Amino acid sequence: MAELTVEETFEGSIQKAFDGITKYSKYPDYLPGVTQIKVLPAKKEGSSCQVRYDLKIVKSFYYTLDMYEESPGKIWWDLDESNLFKVSKGRWELTKDGADYTKAKYIIDVGFKGFVPGKVVDGITKANLPLMMKGFQKLITEG
Question: Which domains does the chain have, with CATH numbers?
Answer without folding.
Answer: 2-142 (3.30.530.20)
